[in-house]
Amino acid sequence: MSEPLIGLLAELPSAELDLERGERIRKRCHAQLARRASRSTSHERVLTIKAAQVWQPVIAILGAAYLTDVVIQAIRLYATL
After folding, report:
1. What DSSP string describes 20-40?
2. Is 40 left (phi over 0), alpha (psi -120 to 50) or beta?
3. Does the first or last residue of the chain, that is N or C, have fewer Cβ atoms within 10 Å of its Cβ?
Protein backbone atom coordinates (compact mmCIF):
# COMPACT_ATOMS: atom_id res chain seq x y z
CA MET A 1 0.00 0.00 0.00
CA SER A 2 1.07 3.55 -0.50
CA GLU A 3 2.10 5.75 2.41
CA PRO A 4 -0.78 8.25 2.02
CA LEU A 5 -3.31 5.42 2.04
CA ILE A 6 -1.78 3.91 5.17
CA GLY A 7 -1.90 7.34 6.83
CA LEU A 8 -5.59 7.75 5.97
CA LEU A 9 -6.37 4.28 7.29
CA ALA A 10 -4.51 5.03 10.51
CA GLU A 11 -6.73 8.08 11.09
CA LEU A 12 -9.92 6.04 10.94
CA PRO A 13 -11.57 5.30 14.29
CA SER A 14 -11.34 1.72 15.45
CA ALA A 15 -14.52 -0.29 15.20
CA GLU A 16 -16.24 -1.17 18.44
CA LEU A 17 -18.71 -4.00 18.67
CA ASP A 18 -22.08 -3.27 20.17
CA LEU A 19 -22.41 -5.76 23.02
CA GLU A 20 -26.08 -6.53 22.31
CA ARG A 21 -25.41 -7.02 18.60
CA GLY A 22 -22.42 -9.21 19.38
CA GLU A 23 -24.52 -11.37 21.66
CA ARG A 24 -27.23 -11.74 18.98
CA ILE A 25 -24.62 -12.76 16.41
CA ARG A 26 -23.10 -15.23 18.85
CA LYS A 27 -26.51 -16.79 19.58
CA ARG A 28 -27.30 -17.10 15.87
CA CYS A 29 -23.95 -18.78 15.24
CA HIS A 30 -24.45 -21.22 18.11
CA ALA A 31 -27.97 -22.03 16.87
CA GLN A 32 -26.68 -22.63 13.34
CA LEU A 33 -23.92 -24.91 14.61
CA ALA A 34 -26.43 -26.83 16.72
CA ARG A 35 -28.70 -27.32 13.67
CA ARG A 36 -25.78 -28.58 11.59
CA ALA A 37 -24.73 -30.97 14.34
CA SER A 38 -28.24 -32.40 14.62
CA ARG A 39 -28.42 -32.85 10.85
CA SER A 40 -25.25 -34.89 10.66
CA THR A 41 -26.86 -38.14 11.65
CA SER A 42 -25.56 -41.65 11.54
CA HIS A 43 -27.22 -41.99 8.13
CA GLU A 44 -24.66 -39.60 6.64
CA ARG A 45 -21.86 -41.50 8.33
CA VAL A 46 -23.18 -44.77 6.87
CA LEU A 47 -23.21 -43.21 3.39
CA THR A 48 -19.64 -42.03 3.86
CA ILE A 49 -18.54 -45.49 4.95
CA LYS A 50 -20.34 -47.08 1.98
CA ALA A 51 -18.69 -44.62 -0.40
CA ALA A 52 -15.29 -45.52 1.05
CA GLN A 53 -16.11 -49.22 0.65
CA VAL A 54 -16.83 -48.62 -3.03
CA TRP A 55 -13.90 -46.34 -3.84
CA GLN A 56 -11.15 -48.26 -2.05
CA PRO A 57 -11.49 -51.39 -4.25
CA VAL A 58 -11.78 -49.23 -7.37
CA ILE A 59 -8.55 -47.43 -6.50
CA ALA A 60 -6.85 -50.75 -5.72
CA ILE A 61 -7.92 -52.20 -9.08
CA LEU A 62 -6.73 -49.13 -10.97
CA GLY A 63 -3.41 -49.22 -9.09
CA ALA A 64 -2.96 -52.90 -9.92
CA ALA A 65 -3.78 -52.24 -13.59
CA TYR A 66 -1.26 -49.39 -13.68
CA LEU A 67 1.43 -51.50 -12.03
CA THR A 68 0.75 -54.37 -14.43
CA ASP A 69 1.09 -52.02 -17.40
CA VAL A 70 4.36 -50.65 -16.04
CA VAL A 71 5.77 -54.16 -15.64
CA ILE A 72 4.65 -55.16 -19.16
CA GLN A 73 6.25 -52.06 -20.68
CA ALA A 74 9.46 -52.69 -18.73
CA ILE A 75 9.58 -56.28 -20.01
CA ARG A 76 8.99 -55.08 -23.60
CA LEU A 77 11.73 -52.48 -23.22
CA TYR A 78 14.24 -55.04 -21.95
CA ALA A 79 13.19 -57.50 -24.68
CA THR A 80 14.06 -54.96 -27.39
CA LEU A 81 17.53 -54.30 -25.97
Report:
1. HHHHHHHHHHHHHHHHHHHHS
2. beta
3. C
At CA 52, angle to CA 49 and CA 57, rounded to 5?
140
Q: Which amino acid is at 57?
A: P
Q: Domain coordinates of the chain in residue numbers?
A: 16-80
Q: How far apart are CA 33 and CA 26, in angstroms?
A: 11
Phi and psi at 58, nearest 5°, equal -60, -45
Measuring CA to CA, how many Å separate 1 from each of 7, 11, 14, 16?
A: 10, 15, 19, 25
pLDDT score recorded for residue 80: 84
Count CA within 13 A, CB hemisphere, residue 21. 3
Q: What is the pTM of this model?
A: 0.42
d(CA 30, CA 35): 9
pLDDT at 37 over 80: no
**DSSP 3-state of 18:** coil
